[in-house]
Amino acid sequence: MRDRLLLGPVLIALLVGLFWADEALDHTTAPAWLHGFFADQTTFPPGTVLFLAGVPLLILAARELSAMFKANGIDASRRVMSVAAILGLCVTSLIPDGLGGVRASQTAHTTAAIVLLGALLFHSRKRTFEGVMASAAGALLSYVYLGLLFGFLLAIRREHSAWVVLWVLVVTKSCDIGAFFTGKSIGRRKLIPWLSPGKTWEGLFGGVIFAAMIGAGGAMILDAGGIARISWVAGACAGMLFGMVGQVGDLLESLLKRDSGIKDASSTLPGFGGVLDVLDSPLLVAPVAYWWLAA
Predict the structure, then answer these.
(1) 191: which DSSP letter?
(2) What CA–CA distance (Å, rounded) separates 272 from 113?
(3) How far is CA 251 from the centre of its chain?
(4) Which of 172, 205, 249, 281 would you label with 151, given CA atoms 20 to 30 Å apart?
(5) 59-80: per-residue pLDDT in tens?
(6) How far apart are CA 38 and CA 63, in angstroms?
(7) End-to-end CA gap in the chain
């Protein structure tokens, strides 16, 4: 807890600074070669700072995912999984607006095929076939789970303000906070004891209620600032939805860790665990939030 209290404010300040810089860059003229990348865009593309920050995050997360595979005796290359994750991020965040729906989807499919073929070839360099399917599956998992899902945050940014993306993240993580303190205080009935013994039904309900409150409050701020038209009722509903989906994301990562026999993805962030331990809930919420905002 001490490490969380010390590192938490630093991470929050860094996060706010990144989103402020990303929003500010929207009004900065980009080099001429970037003008045609987005339709009628002469400033830096939305999400430039978030993309640059996301690349090292995904590399760290891919290394953690690779370590989970290796804990199970699977030779999953950190380099291949890192490249796969970054390719997934690029597919969902960098495809030009004018490419069209069919070609955009085929770009994603082609990239997935490249990841699969690349993983197979990379594994074959050792002139062995043992574990080749598991190694290739690891690369595809990194492409989808890390790259594509994280890329939905950038996809939201392409259509909305950076502060809307921050709202999605804050609402999602607020459920984790609410669930933690509620579970510690009054938690009695175990949610899924075989998977995550520390989680309780009381904690889940407390987290979802807290996320609804944060969602409603954040929506009011966004609406009052003319950033996004989201009513407090819609914000509360989004909070409950994002909170519940985020908890599923947390449990999915627990599933991977349990299979690997580890408690935390790594010790990169003292008090929090690894990068994956922080990203687990936002990764699954990102596509849900994208389609919720698009509806």
Answers:
(1) E
(2) 35
(3) 14
(4) 205
(5) 999 999 999 999 988 888 999 9
(6) 32
(7) 39
Name 236's Cβ contacts closer than 8 Å, sequence gap at least 6: 212, 213, 215, 216, 219
Helix axes of 132-141 and 48-71: crossing angle, nearest 10 degrees = 150
Residue type, 43: T
- CA contacts within 13 A on the Cβ side of 293: 24
User: How far is the CA of 272 from the CAs of 189, 229, 275, 280, in angstroms?
Assistant: 24, 34, 8, 12
Q: What's the mean pLDDT when you consider all of the chain?
A: 90
Distance between CA atoms of residues 268 and 111, nearest Å: 30
Helix (H, G, I), strand (E, B) or coil at 196: strand
For 251-271, write each residue's pLDDT tens digit.
999 999 999 988 888 888 887
The CA dihedral of 13, 173, 82, 66, to the nearest 10 degrees, is 120
Q: What are the residues whose beta carbons fall under 8 Å from the beta carbon of 262, sequence distance 6 or more?
A: 68, 71
Distance CA 248, CA 213 (A): 20
DSSP code of 144?
I
**Token pair belonging to 209:** 């209620």
Question: In the Cβ-directed half-sphere of 59, how many Cα atoms lie within 13 Å?
Answer: 8
Residue with tokens 């990203």: 279
- Collapsed DSSP state (helix, strand, coil) of residue 29: strand
